Amino acid sequence: MFGVAQYIRETRPWLIQFNERSAMEGSPSWINSWKGDGLITRVATPEIREAIRNRSVPVVDLNEQLGGMGIPMITNDHAAVGRMGANHLLDRGFQRFAFLGFTGHTYSDGRRDAFVQTAEAKGYPCMVFPDHEVKVDQLHTGIWQTETDEIAKWVASLPKPIGIMACTDLRGVQLLNACRQANVAVPEQAAVVAVGADDVSCQFADPPLSSIVLNGWKMGYEAAALLDRMMQGHHTMPMPEILIPPMDIFVRRSSDVTAIDDPLVARALHFIRENVRNGINVENVLLYLGVSRSTLQKHFRASVGKSIHDVLTEARFASVKELLVETPLSIADISERCGFQHPEYMSSALKKHTGWSPARYREQYGRQDQRFHL
């Protein structure tokens, strides 16, 4: 709720009653006698939905599991999330795709549909795990722990190599466990990307899990701004649904691979991944491979549709972002490690590439204990 707090600091003081509770708990006892002016909530059960509807105060909803509550909603742009996941795997050269979600949930179905459509628009097949509709209460009783055997059989049956997207980080961790159980190598046979960028889940997964970063701060800020307008009498019809796009993707080892049939390009990409923090340039790649620039360019254009310089630049920026987020290294140290001659040039190039300065990128995405080590 940092976004809510930021909005309050920027505008006017609010008296906040914060009630932290499980999403599956029933309607709170205080709700019927509460005298507040507005409510930001995460509607998760029909009981809470009806209790809220009976209140004559403005309400903004942040819950995405049920959808269609008939009240204003701030929600992640799930189609954009699905497209980002598909494009991440497409950029790595995959031509086979699969999706693992929770059928019947708005967020999962939206991500699935966009993921499938993006892959199929490129002419590539996309398989979907054939699960049954999952009830909300099942998500909170550990259903992901009971399906691993089924997922392992499914993963083993998929054609390889394949790029797989999981609808959440927890689903992604379950998928990695299933791959290990099925003796499917990650990322060489199955590259995995998930959603949520939970530090604990992603970094302690085996291998570390790539994940799409959702903009929770923006959701909270927009929820507070919308509620403020409603409390001042600025009601909007029809009920708005504000979509918040994902911020970025943290690439970790679960998808840090390229599905390439051309052995020369595959060797080049492996060399770049292994040495991107050693200040390498195109000449180093050519020397390692023992080929001419024109030969390598021809192979890269045919296999990945990009120049060797473009691929090396993307790898540098991916490394810069990872170091900004996951280490307290200074900007100068990161610049040197990633092959930029001057920190000022790296900062300017990163802002042009992503729209963010290094300091701002770390502030938004980095762990709390690293945000002041610039």
Structure description:
By secondary structure, this protein is α/β, with parallel strands linked by helices. The chain folds into three domains: 2-76 and 217-244, 3-Layer(aba) Sandwich (Rossmann fold), CATH 3.40.50.2300; 78-215, Rossmann fold; 263-370, Arc Repressor Mutant, subunit A, CATH 1.10.10. The protein has helices spanning 2-10, 46-53, 78-91, 106-121, 136-139, 143-146, 148-157, 169-181, 199-204, 216-231, 263-275, 282-289, 293-303, 308-326, 331-337, 343-354, 358-365; strands at residues 39-41, 59-61, 73-76, 97-100, 126-128, 162-166, 190-195, 210-213, 241-244, 248-250. α2 links the parallel β1 and β2 (59-61). α3 runs parallel beside α4. The longest helix has 19 residues, at 308-326. The relative contact order is 0.10.
List keywords for this structure.
Rossmann fold, Arc Repressor Mutant, subunit A, 6-stranded mixed β-sheet, two-stranded parallel sheet, globular
Number of strands: 10
Averaging pLDDT over every residue, what do you get? 84
Main sheet makeup: 6 strands, mixed
Q: The CATH topology of the largest domain is what? A: Rossmann fold
Helix content: 40-55%
Number of domains as seen in the coordinates: 3
CATH architecture descriptor text of the largest domain:
3-Layer(aba) Sandwich
Percent of residues in beta strands?
Answer: 5-15%
CATH superfamily placement of the largest domain: Response regulator
Low-confidence stretches: 368-374
Rg is: 23 Å
Q: What spatial form do the alpha-carbon principal axes imply?
A: globular
